[in-house]
Here is the input.
Amino acid sequence: MINGRTRLHVVANGTMTGQRYIDEVLLPHVRLFRGAVGDKFVFMDDNATCHRTLSVQDCLDSEGIQRLVWPARSPDLNPIENVWDALGRQVAGRNYPPTNKNTLIRALTEEWDKLPQQLLDNVGQSMVRRVGCCITLHGGHIPY
Here is the structure.
């Protein structure tokens, strides 16, 4: 988001299902963030199959969370890909690259905290220019 970020939330074990997405992402993180931002909040996910279940849509509707509607596989409309690319380059460029899941999670978390806020601001501003609203980006089950 513009002028800030949450800590990185890594969901690393098992397959992400619609119910896990509700329980581990939407309710504990997105719902609270929406409450803090207010009525102009628009949520953007990455169109993964688990994000498109009826139970997920019911949850979003019941929480008053508006989802940005956009076509699947539209990288030009999914600016989170720019953030993931920058994060991936930072992790790959470490002196001691991750060798297992635990070191990968640690590296992602450390590098997330080091990403320049200006990068996140630029991504957020690009969406404001394109869709004219305040949004929170989410992809890969890691909201920010």
About this structure: The chain has a mean pLDDT of 84. The beta strands are 41-44, 66-67, 134-137. Residues 18 and 51 are 6 Å apart (CA to CA).
